[in-house]
Write a structure and sequence with these properties.
Chain C: Keywords: Membrane, NAD, NADP, Plastoquinone, Quinone, Translocase, Transmembrane, Transmembrane helix. The structure holds 3 protein chains of 3 kinds. By secondary structure, chain A is an all-alpha fold. Chain B has a domain of 206 residues. Helices cover 74% and strands 3% of the residues of chain B. Chain B contains 18 helices and 2 strands. Chain B has a two-stranded antiparallel ribbon with strand order 1-2. In chain B, β1 and β2 form a beta hairpin. In chain B, α15 packs antiparallel against α16. Chain B is globular, with a radius of gyration of 21 Å. Chain B starts with a helix and ends with a helix. Chain C is mainly alpha-helical. The longest helix of chain C is centred in the C-terminal third of the chain and has 47 residues. The N and C termini of chain C lie far apart (88 Å). The chains are: A mainly alpha, B mainly alpha, C mainly alpha. Chains in contact: A-C, B-C. At the B-C interface, α6, α11, α13, α14 and α15 of B face β1, α5, α6 and α26 of C.
Amino acid sequence: MNQMPDVIRTIPLEFYLYFSTALFAIGVIGVLTRRNAIVIFMCVELMLNAVNLLMVALSSYRSDPNGQIFVFFIMAVAAAEVTVGLAIIVMIYRNIRSTDVQLMNYLKW
Amino acid sequence: MITALLLFWPALAALLVLLIKGEGAKKVAFIATLVEFAIALFATVNFVPDATTQFAIDVPWVERAGIGFSIGMDGISLLMVLLTTFLVPLIVLSSFKHDYKNPHVFYALVLFMQTGLIGVFVAMDAFLFYFFWEVALIPIYFIAAIWGGARRIPVTFKFFVYTIFGSLFMLAAFVYLYFQTAGTELAAHSSNVNAFYQLTMDSATQSWIFWFLFLAFAIKMPVFPFHTWQPDTYTESPTQATMLLAGIMLKMGIYGVIRWLLPVVPLGVSQWADTVLVLSIIGIIYGSVIAIRQHDLKRLIAYSSIAHVGLISAGIFTLNEQGLQGGMIQMLSHGINVVGLFFIIDIIFRRTNTREISNLGGITQTTPALSIVFLILLMGSIALPLTNGFIGEFLLLSGVFQYNYIFGAVAGMTIILAAVYMLRMFQGVMFGTKSEATEGFADLTFHEKAVLIPLVIMVFWIGLFPNTFLSISEPAVGQLLSIINR
Amino acid sequence: MQEVVMPFNNQEMALLCLLVPLLPFIGFLINGLGNRKLPKALVGMLGSGTVLASFLISVYLFIDFTSNGSRPYIVDLYNWFTVGSLEIGFSFMIDQLTLLMLLMVTGIGFLIHVYSAGYMSHDEGYGKFFAYLNLFMFSMLVLVMGSNYVMMFVGWEGVGLCSYLLIGFWNKNHNYNNAAKKAFIMNRIGDLGFLLAIFLIFITFGSVSFPEVFLSASQMSGMTDSGVMIAITMLLFVGAMGKSAQIPLFTWLPDAMAGPTPVSALIHAATMVTAGIYMVLRSNVLYVLAPTTMEFVAIIGLITALVAATIGLAQNDIKKVLAYSTVSQLGFMFLALGVMAFSSSIFHVLTHAFFKALLFLGAGSVIHAMSNEQDIRNMGGLRKWLPITFITFLIGTLAISGIPPFAGFFSKDELLAHVYEHNKLMWVGGLLASFMTAFYMFRLLFLTFFGKFRGTEAQRSHLHESPSSMTIPLIVLAILSTIGGFIGLPAVFSDTHTLGNFLSPIYDLARRANGAAMEAPHIDHATEYMLMGISVVVSLVAITIAYVLYVKKETVPAPEGTRLSPIHNLIYNKYYIDEIYDTVFVRPVMALSTALHRFVDVVVVDGIVNGFGKLVMAFGRVLRQTQSGVTGFYVFVMVASIVLILFLNFFIG
């Protein structure tokens, strides 16, 4: 607990919380409202990063490195996910000449 | 070690068979099943006829949870293993003249099925039992759904869903029972069979657990009114699958009752035994009466099977030694007879392309060997003395009669009704004048005799020297009864 | 049943006992497996030879038994099956009754085998026929030798199977097959009774072995006419009704005439059908403890005797007449059992076996000569062509009609004397039945052998006396039918009733159990002469009427399709009993079968199962509306749900 650098304390934890909540909310709203797959995808990334930010902040305030280690993993996975996700979107675009998610309602029985 | 060998050898052989493309697969599968039978015989020779579980292996599986990979055989298991290992080679051999597509897959599935069946009979842990119970279902589903008749898809789907539906109740009951058990220093609970046997619960609890377990077993057997998957499935499945279903798989349900129901919830059993007996006896009459007017041979035997199983179920729920021992011997007999009868139907179908009694007739004129074998198996099924069926039905009816005179008398109607439908079938198929379909009907070939003669030998062996088998299961049954009456 | 049954250690005798049923069984195996390959001569030799060997062994056993103080013994082969306290041994018992049955079964069996060698010589199923006959001999011998009820049941069902196979021997014809099936099923109804009786015996006495059961039955106090004794004996009697064709289970026997004639002689006249009497006699200890059942047995026997005799009056098929006369005679035997005249009953079994086998074989000879014609309306005057058959048939007819000194006279007279002692009304009924018997038997004889030949020219040209393999058994049986009665001379002629004395020890336990019931009737000689005289006169009157009608007036029964008087019509159609059974039992079961299958099974039971499936599908159809496939909607629902959960958690949790 005592090794926490002072510089971090200059911004209180609440601020991180508010900020990442806002970021997350923007992401959610983006996912819900936008129809362009790439924008939705970016909004998902936004949500992901909101969580990452929160984890890093809490990890620092609690002097527990576990959180930051998790974040590294998440970033690695996210990178992989972006690769796959974008590839899928590209494939979709090639097939239907659009990235509008409303046009992709095949996921039903 | 022998038990593990028995259990895993068919699975290994199945993997081997999968690698062999083409016709070689059936030969390898046949040899593998023969080896399996030899192992079972070896186990029988080394079996000490007492009540203990022998050749036992108990290694931790999910150690923390007290779930063990616990297998072994007592007399009851051994008889069932013998039945399975005896019938499967014959079932494989019976398919030699069939040209199934992808034979390597077919025979691999049969062998996997055997592992599942053996597993059910040797598992001494509730979850292991459940595991094998479901494992046995999967291969038979594929066999029936891939190589079956025209209506195979809906019929096998229904069969699969229906049996799974029952099994889940059993799983729920097992989970509940598991949480009632006392554990060891390693784990809080245990799913070992002995831990289940030591449970003491009030009769209200036992009552609902009884129904959860019974539902699963009743659907598998099947007991009236849970039987409706059965005639369709028997009819639509390829004959080898029907043999597996009727000859062995049906016994899983009865075995389940003997091992996992009667000793676990004795109070539940004593509350509901009357109900089950009534259901079983209704099944006897119901199956027999319906069988009288069936015109499709397979369907006829399917309904007769309901009647026979009804009697076994009635017998074991009387909880007296004659009923239980009769049930054991009748399971063997029914397996042997029904496999033989289905094979004969298969022979007739392959030569005439029909299973309709009205299209057949006069076969006996050109086929002395087939007539003799058919008649012997038929007499076995209608319980003529000195054949296997008599010993079983005599003991079962005696058990039921001791339980309740009226039940015994009504259940005894089976010996009349069985004669009615079996003789009607025999007469329609074998006697009379030749029909268009049966013109030039050839007698048994060498390989058909190779399947049927061992069955006929067993018909008389059990009929004349039933003590060979009764003495194997007697101590185990005695112990079971003492657990039930604890 | 005597009290003491010796344990038996003599290996050689045990082997001999085993050989008695085993030899025919070996014959069955060889003939059955070698079916179409063995030469006919060998098949016939083997079939008859094994039975002859059994007969000779039986004779030896008989001599050995009587010369060694007549002590019954048990030959234990092995323990068949054991479950708990139920122990069934595969074992044989030799006592007076068994020996008597053995001699009768193997002796007559041998003669009929020899006869069959001639009768069936033109049949393609020659080997099969002998195989079945040998199997029958095996089963019948197990039946009479078995030392416990289960062993008896083994033989009991075994003879049922053979009867089935032999009735349907010519299996191309479905009428024959139906007759065979009917016989088997009706027998099975009886068998169920027998089986239940075995269970009840086991529950009551803790054993099914004859010596133990009878000993404990005779020692239990207060068993006389107790519910359980009545139940046991009644159930056993149900078995006997099926096997011995008593009302209401008798309709299979006339139909069973579909089988080859030697079969009718062996199975459906001389041996198998008397198994019911053997069984009651064997269980005499149990029966004397249940007088109520005995009364019932007597009544059933009497009714059967009367009903079958009336039907016999109007039949035109030579074998059917004999079949109804068999049913009627079996009724007599049960009547005798019912009045506790056990020895008279078995005496009648014996003499009946002689003369009825003779009559059937004679009928077979006639049918053989007539190129398979069985209708007596198309016969007549055959005595010219078939002299030996005629004479032997005449002897048989005289014997069955109760004319002295032929065998039937003594047995029937003794039997009726006991009935007279028991109940005068029953005696009148018996006399009436015996009057009808004499009438229809002589009607048969006159129509067949007297008058003018009424068959076709083709038949006439083929008429011939049967070969010696057929006539010799006829002659032997005729001799037996003539002198067979002298083993049981009535008290007025002789002090020693040979048969009665020989059998007497088997009632020892019965006497102890219920001495009052077992007391021999005391009939003074005057009454006995009177009874004898009456029954002879009655028979002679019947014969005279038949003679006047069918020889003097040359009446021939009306051809098929003629209008008959109502009563004649009724008995001609066998009281419509088959039709009644068909309406009351067969059709309802068939209808039930269809209804259960089409409606209950497919619609109701399976409907419920499928209903569950449909219910799930219906839910699915509703719920699938939410699966629009639009990802945005899914995400919205997800977020909304999360918000809702958080919200609830915050305010409520």
